[in-house]
Specification:
By secondary structure, the chain is of the alpha+beta class. Helix content is about 25%, strand content about 25%. It has three helices and five strands; from the N terminus they run E-H-E-H-H-E-E-E. The protein has helices spanning about 15-20, 35-45, 45-50; strands at about 5-10, 25-30, 60-65, 70, 80-85. A five-stranded mixed beta sheet has the order 2-1-5-3-4, covered by helices on one side. Strand 3 (about 60-65) and strand 4 form a beta hairpin. The termini are far apart. The relative contact order is 0.25.
Length: about 90
């Protein structure tokens, strides 16, 4: 059985404040965005619920990018991929 690829996830400051001890950048294993989020949730319980809704899908006000491309939960990850979680900016 092969190990899932290691990726680097960059978290927004808003999530870091909610989960004390979480770094700005963290390496996790996951073959998909979904698996990477599970790995984050294993370290900081509840983090997945802040990123995903119950359908499950990435929340409307959260954007996830993999290597610069917008991603969904089923987006595959390669070893060394960069996953960036951003909170959406809105205003009026």
């Amino acid at each position: 059985m092969t190990e899932p690829p290691m990726v680097v996830v960059t978290l927004p400051g808003a999530l870091q404040r909610l989960f004390p001890g979480s770094p700005r950048r963290v390496a996790v294993a996951g073959a998909t965005v979904d698996e990477a989020l599970d790995a984050l949730n294993a370290r900081w319980p509840g983090m997945r619920d802040r990123i995903c809704d119950s359908t499950p899908a990435i929340r409307r006000h959260i954007n996830v990018f993999v290597d610069g491309e917008r991603a969904a939960l089923d987006t595959p990850l390669a070893s060394g991929s960069t996953v960036i979680v951003l909170t959406a900016v809105s205003g009026g």
